[in-house]
Model the fold of this input.
Amino acid sequence: MNTNIIEINKHPETCPQVTTTLSFRPLAAYLKRRLKTEETLKKEFYRFLLEKLEQQDALEKDIDVTSLGKHREVLDLIYTILTPLMANEKEMLWALSTPIPDRIFYSTDLFHDFFVANMPNKATLKGDEFHKHHEKEQQLRYIYSLILERLYNFTALSNNEMLVNHRDKNTGLNRYFRVTADMQFVQIYYTGGELPLIDFDRFSNLGKDGLELETLIKILPLQDFKFDGFTVISLVDVSQQHALEGIRNALANHVYSTGEYTEVIDVLRTLVNNPEIGFGLLPLTTVNDKPVLDNQNNSSSILIKASEDYGITEALFLTELENYVNDPKPLFFHANKDLAAQQPVAAAIYHSGIKTYAILPIYYNTQLVGLLEIFSKADIKIDEKLLARLNQALPLLGQLFQYRIEEFNVRMDEILKDKFTAIQPSVQWKFNQHIWDFMRKNAGRKSKQDIETVTFKHLYPLFGAIDIRNSTIERNTALREDLLVLLAKLGSTLEELRATMKLELIDKVIFDCGNWQGKVASYLESGEENELNEFLEFEVHPMLKHLSATEKKVAHIVANYLAVIDPEQGVAFENRRKLEASMQTINAAVSEYLESEQERLQQTYPFYFAKFRTDGIEYDIYIGQEIAPNIPFAPLYLKNIRLWQLHSMIEVARLTQRLMPTMDKPLQTTQLIFVHANPIDISFRNDERRFDVEGAYNIRYEVIKKRIDKVRVRDSNERLTQPGKIALVYYNNFEASEYMTHIAYLQEQGLLLMEIEQLELEDLQGVRGLKALRVSVAGIE
Done:
């Protein structure tokens, strides 16, 4: 044991001014209490120590810390009574100090050597008590926490523990110790008269603003207190617990990228307490379910670095990695020439100077998320004891890898949304590949290269359109009816204003309003509609709002008019709201049906499906080998989807028919299919964020699609598309032959009527020779 005095405070001038006396009086009081209750042999030991204290007058009074070396026997007795009987002094970090721990006067040799060697220059203190940047404030918190706990039975400011970190000279590894100050032999006295009362509800709220310490200094000045006794200090090695906490901090601080795994690796080395062991972390990032090496130049994986140095190609490395991922299991081996001759990756490890190497698969929610590498250039044994130490960290590493994978996927998605758009799963694999190539090529570049165009070749197109019948006419009718309501209300409002106040301008506006009512009732052209809006917005409404604000007697008149023209609830928008609601009802139902059907149909063979909102719903479908290169394409899949297209149009016609009774404004739909037998090429246009056709011949397909929605039957004014019917537009008879067989099948099923119309269509701009089939849906009048 050691009686040398150790100064704890590195900056004594910053210490709070508080009266302290070193004494054994609290210990003597404790021993007297125990003698009244203790019934074991300890009672004699307590009596012996108490007699020793009482025999030496110096120990019954205030003690000069520098004189305690004379009382070594008593100090040894105190050590014996306060520590476990079987404790080994050479292995304990234990000491006695002044009441407010600023000087240690008795300690184990291990504590003395550790403290002197590490605390003054190298220790990093973490905690509320002795933080190196806020020493005085933290000591104040420490002292006031004791006062509140002892005299007010309130604990809030801090605890009596702190953490000491130092680097072991022998291993070079960090070690962490929890420092505990046991204050049971410290007595606190208030010398300022009656102890002040504290409103702890209010005091707790002050803590939220960081004002509690400032308040305490005013209410309870330290010169009114006295601390008497001594403190017991102990240190416990918590390196393993702190190592795990380090990984948790990495998770909390979002340390996911491989370049920032240094902290985690240091933590793992601390966990195993072996400086000869190194670690590598390899999160399993994938593109299209295949491993990729993200930021490999900054990776902490020793396997990647060794493979690069040895000249193993990335393709070969990824092949070996994929083989492991398909059959993950712990691997342990000692690198040697024989093994290096058999396996390229083992050869890379061997030539890097590593003798011991192991891989542990890391899981998160049963999914493989990465690899933990354990290696050493020394010939060591990776045994169960070492693995048991690491086992506590594996779930945290799994979470760390999962976050890293999610961060990688987020970057992929950000580029996808930035460069492309929301992409369907059926084609996203190709976008993923282009994104990954883009990320690799531009890693570390200031001027980024453009992303390559995504193209699919030799795809079979299908086009369908569900249109709301006479939507333009319905919109114009609703607008005219609403405008007549608006102008009638405006006229009556102006008449009321004229009867209430004298303003010649009102007469002029009444005259204009009457003219507009006549125009709207007969026919309103688009140009006139704009003029009417200007009349209302720039002439009528400013006048009404001004009068309402300046003439209180007419405010209610204007308010009634403004209520009528409210787009959400006013009667001047009622017809348009009903029409819009009916159109939304149809479009929502049709859209939901098509989405559900296409998801189901994707299970047969993947295809690209794009849906567009017009006055109705239009959609494009592209199917072919390049959509799913890993699944053999056959004509039967094309026939199947064409049959589905025809059948789905029947179901859409029936669906919208059933919706009519539920709509405020009953609307009908027409169904159109464009048949195109030859395959085409499509590419994604980054500027417009959509797929478009490639080549002059293919562009013709797009032109026809856009012009057939209102096509008429040749030599008539009859529109091809009609409610309750399905129209199929085509060029050549062989294109229609397959659909004829599908129609016959659906007629046999009772879904289509037996009559088939074969029609020729009028010439369109740049389009001649179009033909059509038209067939009625059964059960729709």
Observations:
- The chain has four domains: 6-235, 241-418, 471-575, 578-777.
- The chain has 25 helices and 25 strands.
